[in-house]
Amino acid sequence: MQDSADGQPDGTATVQFPRPGFLASVFREFHPDQGQGQGGGQGQGLGPDAADPGPAAPGTPDDGAPGGGSSGGAASGDGPAEPEESIAAHGRAAALTHHRTLTVQAEHDRLADLLRRAALPVSAMDFESQLRHYEPRPYPADGSETGSEAEPRWADFAPAGPATADPDGAPARRLLDSGYQRELAQARLAHQRSLREWRTRRAEADNPAVDESRRVHEAAEEARARAVREYNESLEECRRAYRLSEPAAVESLLERALAAAETATQDLPAPCRAVFRPLTRTAVLDLDLPPLDLVPSLTGYRLAPDGDIVPVPRPPADRATDYLRLVARLALRALQAADAVDTDEILAGVVLNGWLREPGTAEPLCLVSVDADRDALARTRLLPPATPYEERDDEGVYADAEQDEALVRLRQLGAAVTPDPYGRVGVQPAAQAGAAVPAAPDLSANEFAQLVRDLLTRGGLAEWSVRLRGPAGLVATGEGAPGSALPGRWVVWASRGAEPVSAEEIATLAEAVQEESAERGLRLTTGRFADEALDLTGEESHRHIHLVDGDGVSELARTHLGLPLAAGR
Cα–Cα distance between 516 and 76 in angstroms, integer? Predict the structure, then answer.
């Protein structure tokens, strides 16, 4: 019972409930009709009669008996606890699913950003752009030489006389003008200030500490000028060596250009090394490709009906396409850097091999190989930054491999690209970055074609035209001037390989000479000729067919190019 203000009982009862919601759980035990009646009594306040539910509800607790109420409340309160816990667990799982999906989406966004930055145009790192310029810095103490500075004169500060309507008036009256007097006072102050500053500078100029500071400054400026001059001289020396096709100078210039091209993606290490072969004037680039796990393998996560968080994998073809799109951009960027820096056109071509180097594997895996000559490089450009990344409703930032411009341009260069990088399917490198003077079988297709052309054009065969070309050799036509070492029209068939040239090939060349209305045919090989082929060229009908074997090719390279060539292994 509660007491009133005067200390007497007021007739109301205080009921202690074990936990919130206990009263509602008790009312749910009653009949619906009785529950409504009790609800009406509750709205009027709980008195002694309302605390007793009456005989219609046997077993209900008595008034003011909290012990009896606690048992009923526990029995009814445990029922909704399990659904509430289930709902809370489902909410936690949904939040975790969303968080993991956002993490996967961040990986996709990073890949899209790398694709965009890897396609940025490459700035040329030629010799002109690397020159340094010296700009002298003045001594900070003053901006002029005090010794040659004249003392400030009052005539330079004196204001003009006041204007007057009466030119014949007395000068004394003009001096009484108030505006003129103010200007005159300000001019005197300015003259005195300038005179003090001039005297201060002149006194400081005679200070030994100032003289020493000036000497230190001048010595530092001379050192800066000398450093810039020596750097430019060394750069000019490198340029002369580069124009002479010295391998060290060409490789140094190429690697500086390749390193500068990586500045847009410094968070994606993709080093590229260069080897220059003066025999064929070709640069062989070895590009380290990014790891395969850089491309996300999931599209996100979903919540299963049983409450488990299930990853949603991406189709393997989509993941492989995204990796190859990134590889194509890195390869095109390296080719563009090599082409942009070669302003003196020393390079006749570039071979690029993309290598996947995985921990725990002994040998790297070649996933892409490009053999491009100068003409093809001149037509190759990186993608504009925004063109391939316009979002579509069905693709987002990704595109099909057949529609990706970087892969299309790479294949137009005749590149060999792995069909499945995640299956570790490699390709044959066009050429290995080995010695500067390789053996003939180590040359790429473009290198071998360039070598044959250089040998024969320097021998007198002009108007060179390639008809067929493949990894094993080429077929071309040329015409020499009268009186040269190779006069008349020729059909040239050059090949490399270990198998000896047969008589059937000599007969085929004779037919090609007749079809091209040529006068002679030249069969060149880095290997040797079979005895039947030698006997056939000794006959009268095939004496217009000339043969050059591996030893002859080496001799021609030494005579016309001044460089040796290992004809075989």
Answer: 105
